[in-house]
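Why should sequence recovery work at all? Because a backbone constrains its sequence more than one might expect. Tight turns favour small or flexible residues, buried strands favour hydrophobic ones, and helices have their own preferences. The token representation captures these environments compactly. In the example below, the structure is given first.
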């Protein structure tokens, strides 16, 4: 009886050690919060950009994506966790990271506008629906934020995702630059990736962590800015040439 108890105790300890081999099922398990680094030379990447280049830039290995370029991991299901990357952008570009990526048409995106450095929309969150990124609609508190984005150097970007919330940090700042409390695609899952835009950008040091799924609570909507139209009515359709004024 003591022998059996000792075996069960050892097995339980091994199961509890992150990354250890579970003797009961014979497979290697990875702790949910372990950070994973994925080099851009890895075959895990799907690179959707015929002009993409893997090259040295500002002293380190990098992936360059051109104006419409994007890349995502092909073997990941991500709901909650963190994703980080270093970005060195061309003067006019829209570099950022995608998360809960289902396809190029359906995902969540946070990107930067280096050419708007210091402005209220230098950082932008936008959901992608059916291939559209309606950034004009999702604007203001909870969707855009000011940031100083220096040129000709690496800028670190980190996104923490939990449920319907996401927080965005730039250059290892103590406080997040942008806090999103209402992720518009809801409780979805998908991969992670990077995207450029306009003149393109370089990316380096991509890492991520996967954390457990969260409870599905109701979204917290940002405050509505003064002057925004919130209610309206539509009349029945009528021919404009016959309508009396």
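From this structural description, the recovered sequence reads:
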């Amino acid at each position: 009886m003591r022998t059996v108890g000792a075996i069960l105790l050892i097995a339980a300890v091994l199961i509890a050690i992150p990354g250890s081999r579970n003797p009961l099922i014979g497979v290697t398990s990875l702790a949910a919060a372990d950070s994973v680094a994925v080099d851009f030379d890895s075959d895990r990447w799907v690179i959707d950009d015929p002009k993409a280049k893997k090259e040295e830039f500002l002293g380190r290995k990098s992936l360059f994506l051109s104006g419409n370029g994007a890349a995502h991991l092909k073997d990941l299901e991500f709901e909650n966790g963190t994703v980080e990357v270093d970005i060195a952008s061309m003067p006019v570009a829209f570099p950022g990271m995608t998360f809960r990526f289902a396809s190029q048409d359906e995902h969540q995106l946070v990107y930067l506008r280096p050419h708007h450095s210091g402005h209220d929309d230098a950082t932008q969150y936008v959901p992608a629906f059916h291939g559209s990124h309606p950034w004009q609609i999702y604007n203001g508190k909870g969707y855009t934020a000011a940031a100083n984005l220096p040129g000709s150097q690496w800028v670190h970007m980190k996104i923490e995702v939990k449920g319907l919330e996401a927080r965005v940090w730039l250059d290892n700042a103590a406080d997040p630059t942008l806090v999103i409390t209402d992720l518009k695609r809801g409780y979805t899952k998908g991969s992670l990736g990077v995207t450029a835009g306009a003149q393109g950008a370089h990316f380096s040091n991509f890492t991520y962590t996967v954390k457990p799924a969260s409870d599905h609570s109701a979204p917290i909507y940002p405050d509505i800015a003064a002057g925004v139209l919130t209610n309206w009515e539509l009349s029945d359709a009528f021919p404009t040439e016959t309508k009396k004024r």
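A few observations help interpret the result. The CA atoms of residues 15 and 170 lie 36 Å apart.
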